[in-house]
Amino acid sequence: MFILSGRAKSRADTFSDMFSGVPGNMNNAIEGFNRFWQSVFIYACVSIAMQVAGLFFSSIALNIFGAILAGMGVVALQTEYV
User: Fold this and answer.
1) pTM for the full model?
2) Residue 4: which residues within 8 A CB-CB, separation 6 or more?
3) Cβ contacts of 38 within 8 Å, gap of 6 or more
């Protein structure tokens, strides 16, 4: 362990005081950058949610709709040949 003289100790305190404000300044500097990436993340999540909802709709509702149309086509063919 080093023993600092009075002059060296004051320089060390000056340097520590000078760098103690860096994290706060860095947080202010990158706040806008973080806000941008948060908005990108939110838009990506919304996009994925909409894709899942579209997949859910197309896999359930359109299959039912297709079955109804196929049934109507079968009925139409039967009435044509009867």
Assistant:
1) 0.47
2) 12
3) none
